[in-house]
């Protein structure tokens, strides 16, 4: 094998293990501890390994654990998504488009088709980028994460699961097993807007998700959740913006005020993609757009 | 430690001895001599490495060869039918001048092939959306989009890919 560019990275040398069940995977991850990393689709992980951001000695390929690939509804209309469900499945699921459109909308804006065919929702969440495409919508839906590991299974809110840039609450040996979404009010609507300069293949500069229940007779948002991506160390809720809008009659002025408050709740950084000021301004613009889109729906 | 695996590529079962960290793109090009698939950005952004795995477009530069076991892999070389008859997409790219340097072309065609398999009659918007992840530095994309649309409107010919 000739020396190709791809081989320069030492991060790309590992022992490869392929568990077929969750139990096997947990057992391997526990045994190898900090030496091991799980890989699902690998679309984020391959880059991290190639650039030596991480250099696992052992790669535990959980991609073959078919029991983690599902989109299911429980009796009360709540949702359970297996961690290995591909982003493309989420995008294309007609059930999801009908019941929780903010999820399929976000899925559709992640990367490109070829990435979405391989990338998984668990991978997107566990990679824990501040700009993670699926996160704002799920946070606005009050999603929770079921974690499995050597100890007892535990469930935490998605907001608590994401701890910092690239950091999750997972302990050694633990795996994200499932994402759960509580049932929605039948009158609830959701939207996810992504702002990125070069279409979907670029990371989000700003992501805005809004899930709200609108009383169209009164023109009042009875319940509203606004989540922002890429403008803080983790995706965040814009609590003050929500309080501004909730229970009040919707006017152009109120939408603008809410958008400004959302922008003030963000703490974006300046980086190669955009300045902090631009990102804050875009939070305002896209919050306004998202709210208007919800009203029209 | 090198591992013995089998990959099903363009209808042929290949026996290979590989390191577990080799990507599918590397194995296709350097072990199987299938250099139609290109390695360009190595980040999954440009699309030049796109192949079909079980009919779906995949970035082979980000796909471990180990993950490709047991799956049906089709590269640009596998699109031709018997007796060298070109796939309608390949013909259309030629007829519509959608190829200049040719570097993006295999990736473009494989992505378009996945699109037309799923959606045989796409609108122009749908073609553009499907090709979002494939970059071209030469053509300005217009002729590529025309070529995909033209291929969609043709009747399938004898050489519809080596399935």
Describe the structure.
Chain A is an alpha+beta fold. Chain A contains twelve helices and 14 strands. The relative contact order of chain A is 0.11. With 163 residues, chain B is α+β, with helices and mostly antiparallel strands. Chain B has two domains: 76 residues, Beta-grasp domain (Ubiquitin-like (UB roll), Roll); 64 residues, [2Fe-2S]-binding domain (DNA polymerase, domain 1, Orthogonal Bundle), CATH 1.10.150. Chain B has five helices and five strands; from the N terminus they run ββαβββαααα. Chain B has a five-stranded mixed sheet, with helices on both faces. Chain B starts with a strand and ends in a 10-residue tail after the last helix. At the A-B interface, helix 2 and helix 6 of A face helix 1, strand 4 and helix 3 of B.
Secondary structure elements and pairings:
The complex is a heterodimer of chains A (297) and B (163).
Chain A (H helix, E strand, L loop, with lengths): L14 E3 L4 H11 L3 E4 L5 H6 L7 E4 L9 E3 L5 E4 L4 H6 L1 H6 L1 H8 L4 H4 L4 H7 L7 H6 L3 E5 L5 E4 H4 E3 L2 E2 L6 E7 L6 E8 L10 E10 L4 E10 L6 E2 L1 H7 L6 H14 L10 H21 L1
Parallel strand pairs in A: 1-3, 2-3
Antiparallel strand pairs in A: 4-5, 5-10, 6-7, 6-10, 8-9, 11-12, 12-13, 13-14
Chain B lengths: L2 E7 L2 E7 L5 H8 L18 E4 L2 E4 L12 E3 L13 H8 L9 H14 L5 H7 L11 H12 L10
Parallel strand pairs in B: 1-5
Antiparallel strand pairs in B: 1-2, 3-4, 3-5
Helix pairs in contact in B: 2-5
């Amino acid at each position: 094998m000739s020396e190709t560019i791809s081989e320069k990275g030492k991060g790309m040398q590992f022992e490869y293990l392929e568990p077929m069940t969750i139990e096997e995977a947990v057992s391997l991850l526990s045994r190898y501890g900090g030496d091991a990393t799980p890989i699902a689709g690998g679309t984020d992980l391959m880059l991290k390994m190639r650039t030596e951001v991480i250099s696992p000695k052992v790669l535990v390929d959980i991609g073959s654990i078919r029991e983690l690939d599902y989109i299911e509804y429980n009796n009360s209309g709540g949702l359970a998504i297996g961690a290995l469900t591909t982003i493309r499945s989420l995008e294309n699921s007609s059930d999801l488009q009908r019941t929780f459109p903010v999820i399929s909308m976000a899925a559709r804006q992640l990367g490109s088709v070829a990435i979405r065919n391989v990338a998984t929702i668990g991978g997107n969440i566990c990679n824990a980028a501040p700009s993670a495409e699926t996160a704002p919508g799920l946070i606005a839906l009050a999603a929770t994460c079921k974690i499995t590991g050597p100890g007892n299974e535990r469930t935490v809110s998605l907001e608590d699961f994401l701890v910092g840039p690239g950091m999750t609450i997972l302990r050694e040996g633990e795996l994200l097993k499932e994402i759960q979404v509580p049932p929605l009010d039948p009158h609830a609507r959701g939207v996810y807007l992504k702002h990125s300069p070069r279409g979907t293949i670029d990371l989000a500069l700003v992501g805005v998700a809004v899930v709200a229940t609108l009383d169209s007779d009164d023109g009042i948002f009875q319940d509203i959740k606004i989540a922002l991506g890429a403008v803080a160390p983790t995706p965040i809720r814009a609590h003050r913006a929500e309080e501004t809008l909730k229970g009040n009659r919707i006017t152009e002025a109120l939408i603008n005020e809410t958008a400004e408050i959302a922008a003030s709740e963000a703490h974006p950084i300046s980086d190669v993609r955009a300045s902090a000021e631009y990102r804050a301004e875009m939070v305002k613009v896209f919050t306004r757009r998202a709210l208007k889109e919800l009203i029209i729906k | 430690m090198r591992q013995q695996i089998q990959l099903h590529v363009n209808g042929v079962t290949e026996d290979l001895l590989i390191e577990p960290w080799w990507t599918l793109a590397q194995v296709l090009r350097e072990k199987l001599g299938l250099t139609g698939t290109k390695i360009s950005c190595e980040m999954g952004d440009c699309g030049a490495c796109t192949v079909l795995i079980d009919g779906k477009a995949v970035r082979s530069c980000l796909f471990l060869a180990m993950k490709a076991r047991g799956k049906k892999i089709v590269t640009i070389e596998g699109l031709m039918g018997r007796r060298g008859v070109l796939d309608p997409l390949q013909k259309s790219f030629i007829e519509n001048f959608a190829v200049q340097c040719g570097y993006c072309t295999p990736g473009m065609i494989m992505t378009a092939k996945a699109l037309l398999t799923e959606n045989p009659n796409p609108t122009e918007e749908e073609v553009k959306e499907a090709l979002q992840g494939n970059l071209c530095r030469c053509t300005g994309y217009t002729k590529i989009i025309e070529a995909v649309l033209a291929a969609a409107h043709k009747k399938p010919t004898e050489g519809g890919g080596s399935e």
